[in-house]
Design brief:
Largest sheet: 7 strands, parallel
Strand order of the largest sheet: 1-10-9-6-2-3-5
Structural class: alpha/beta
Distance between the termini: 20 Å
Radius of gyration: 17 Å
Helix content: 25-40%
Shape: globular
Bound molecules: fructose -6-phosphate
Order of helices and strands: EHEHEEHEHEEHEHEHEH
Length: 245
């Protein structure tokens, strides 16, 4: 696992954008794995700008998002589908049929999750996957547990995650209790993984990851130690506990 340390959020976003721009320039048909949340917004702004300046072409790019809340339709303003359109897809030249965000409103998730995996496999798998990390170490919505699921599946969100994500909703009661997420095996199959960690609220997860040697399902991001091409890009605030030592 490689660590790159940057001064602040903007620098992290720019460094991540450089990696994505390179991938897209080298392979205009690349398959991107994408995340939502506060962390990637700066990167998405950079990619929009690069697209508008003609530096990168999204016309043959395919994307697969990590996760979605259960019960929220794609046009719901708090759904991850809506987030992706609002923060990226509506501002770049990408084909809507090439953008995949798991559906939050399926009746049969056994069938649906297999279908999502098959779609990803038939696109050739992810050339690069962007990850943020939860304060509890979750990646996607793979929450700390005694064991983690390999494939795309439905999860119960932890009280921690519901509390932390309430900032995106009117109230904590409005946060869905379940989500659908890529599994750890799905994530680890990505050929390259970029993790962005920013802000003081991520200092303790950053410290734990920095010192991490083994896979622990109670700390899901630790599974990335088993992957050969992971780059963590973090800002000074997130590295607070590491720098103080
Ligand atoms: C979102 C996702 C989550 C977030 C994580 C951090 O698609 O998969 O794992 O990356 O909860 O969220 P932020 O960036 O809001 O701190």
């Amino acid at each position: 696992m490689e660590f790159i340390f940057k001064k602040d959020y903007d620098e992290v976003s720019k460094a991540a954008a450089e990696v994505f721009v390179d991938i897209i320039k080298n392979n205009p048909r690349a398959v991107l794995g994408l995340a939502t949340g506060s962390t990637p917004i700066g990167l998405y702004k950079e990619l929009i700008e690069s697209n508008q300046r003609g530096m990168i072409d999204f016309s043959e790019i395919k994307t697969f998002n990590l996760d979605e809340y259960l019960g929220l339709a794609p046009d719901h303003e708090y759904s991850y589908s809506y987030f992706m359109k609002d923060n990226l897809f509506n501002h770049i030249q990408i084909k809507p049929e090439n953008c995949h965000v798991p559906s939050g409103i399926e009746s049969d998730y056994n069938t649906y999750c297999s279908h999502y995996e098959e779609l990803l496999d038939s696109a050739g798998g992810m050339d690069i996957l962007l990850l943020g990390v939860g304060e509890n170490g979750h990646i996607g919505f793979n929450e700390p547990d005694k064991a983690l699921s390999a494939r795309t599946h439905v999860v119960d969100l932890t009280e921690d995650t519901i509390r932390v994500n309430a900032r995106f909703f009117e109230s904590v009661e409005d946060v869905p209790r379940k989500a659908v997420t890529m599994g750890m095996g799905t994530i680890l199959k990505a050929r390259k993984i970029i993790v962005l960690i920013t802000g003081e609220n991520k200092a303790s997860v950053m410290e734990r990851l920095f010192n991490c040697q083994r896979m622990d399902p109670e700390f899901p991001i630790s599974f990335l130690v088993g992957h050969t091409d992971v780059t963590v890009i973090a800002d000074e605030a997130a590295c607070k506990n590491i720098r103080e030592k």
